[in-house]
Write a structure and sequence with these properties.
The structure holds 2 protein chains of 2 kinds. Helices cover 0% and strands 55% of the residues of chain A. Chain A has no helices and 11 strands. Chain B is mainly β. Chain B is globular and about 35 Å long. Classes of the chains: A mainly beta, B mainly beta. Chains A and B meet through strand 4, strand 5 and strand 10 of A and strand 5 and strand 10 of B.
Chain lengths: 110, 113
């Protein structure tokens, strides 16, 4: 079993849809959880950052962490074609290396 | 504020050669991490440097090495290149070992022929 698993995708949705992206993990020591967005030929860009369990909202993006289930999610409301990218979850414990999920490719169709 | 700068952007090398990649972190960031990204394996952690000391190392052979200078700039070196080393190499910096997430550069795309 991989340390971090992510819905493989690819995922295609119409513009305006609500998108749900999910990751599960096995290491209960993880405390910091992040979502990155990566456009083609670019480095990953930090979207959301959460410490421990709970929800965090930033504009159209909401990150949820459920440590008891070892499950994290990213919701995108009112999705736009500019949201088309690969989304990577990442997690770590302070001072340890980050572990990334394999990524989910999202296409938002106009 | 300047982002993370990686040079060169593209590189073509021959099997058996060695290569050095450079990373300039965001000003004030003391932690630099390196990752290898390939379509098959995704993002894999290579190593992390903090205040010129290697703090963590991933599962890569000894051909992969790195260092960090007193100004936090970092280099990674790959010796005796193999075809399988072809990948996007990403550098990321953080003020404090990723506590607030890492900021990535655009990467160096290395092709080994």
């Amino acid at each position: 079993q991989k340390e971090v698993e992510q819905d493989p995708g690819p995922l295609s949705v119409p513009e305006g849809a609500i998108v749900s992206l999910n990751c599960t993990y096995s290491n209960s020591a993880f405390q910091y959880f992040m979502w990155y967005r990566q456009y083609s030929r670019k480095g990953p860009e930090l979207l959301m950052y959460t410490y421990s369990s709970g929800n965090k909202e930033d504009g159209r993006f909401t990150a949820q962490v459920d440590k008891s289930s070892k499950y994290i999610s990213l919701f995108i409301r009112d999705s736009q074609p500019s949201d088309s990218a690969t989304y990577l979850c990442a997690m770590t414990n302070y001072g340890q290396n980050f572990v990334f999920g394999p990524g989910t490719r999202l296409s938002v169709l106009p | 504020k300047a982002g993370v700068t990686q040079t060169p952007r593209y590189l073509i090398k021959t099997r058996g050669q060695q290569v050095t990649l450079s990373c300039s972190p965001i000003s004030g960031h003391r932690s630099v991490s390196w990752y290898q990204q390939t379509p098959g394996q995704g993002l894999q952690f290579l190593f992390e440097y903090f205040s010129e000391t290697q703090r963590n190392k991933g599962n890569f052979p000894g051909r992969f090495s790195g260092r960090q200078f007193s100004n936090s700039r970092s280099e990674m070196n790959v010796s005796t290149l193999e075809l399988g080393d072809s990948a996007l190499y990403l550098c990321a910096s953080s003020p404090d070992r990723g506590r607030d997430g890492y900021t990535f550069g655009s990467g160096t795309r290395l092709t080994v022929v």
